[in-house]
Amino acid sequence: MNQAPPFGPRDRSGRSDLTEVIQQVARGDKQAFSTLYGTLAPLVFGITTRIVRNRAQSEEVTQEVMIGLWRQAARYRPEAGSVITWAATIAHRRAVDRVRSAQASADRERAQAARERSPGYDEVAEQVQTRWESEQVRRCLRGLTELQRQAVTLAYYQGLTYREVVESLRTPLPTVKTRMRDGLIRLRGCMGVSL
Questions:
Q1: For residues 32 and 24, is the Cβ–Cβ distance under 8 A?
Q2: CATH for 18-117, among 3.30.420.40, 1.10.1740.10, 3.40.50.300, 2.40.50.100?
Q3: Residue ranges of the RNA polymerase sigma factor 70 region 4 type domain (predicted)?
Q4: 15, 70, 73, 129: which has the fewest C-beta neighbours closer than 10 Å?
């Protein structure tokens, strides 16, 4: 008993008549594409399922491959291999691309979740720097005279104008300006800030 080959009839040389079918598909023959689809879709689906391991995605990749065969039929070259080999190669590549794409997407999601769960290095470094600078400013402020410290604190930390500082300290304006200038010069020196 002679069984039919699994992917369509073959001529005497053993080559599948799929070469003729793909050439007809290249000319836009929808009936030929229907034959090609019926012959190759199970093979393509099997390849994609082994690689992707997700039935729904395997079906999507199979559809992409079959549409690609329809669009690229004119690019098939018999001397490079059989239609089955060509289709299997395309299916394998598309399935691997899908797996890589899914992996890259999952990696991006994990990285984003990790960034959202913990403060980044830059945030921690910035907090440490801010705390260190705040402590340094407090230490340097303690090195000022009482009038200098009060004038600088009122003007720079409470946002008061010169006039408001004068009223608050009940000190003449020229004295307040001088004390603030001297205080700022000492602060710069203490903090190591150059002009």
A1: yes
A2: 1.10.1740.10
A3: 135-187
A4: 129
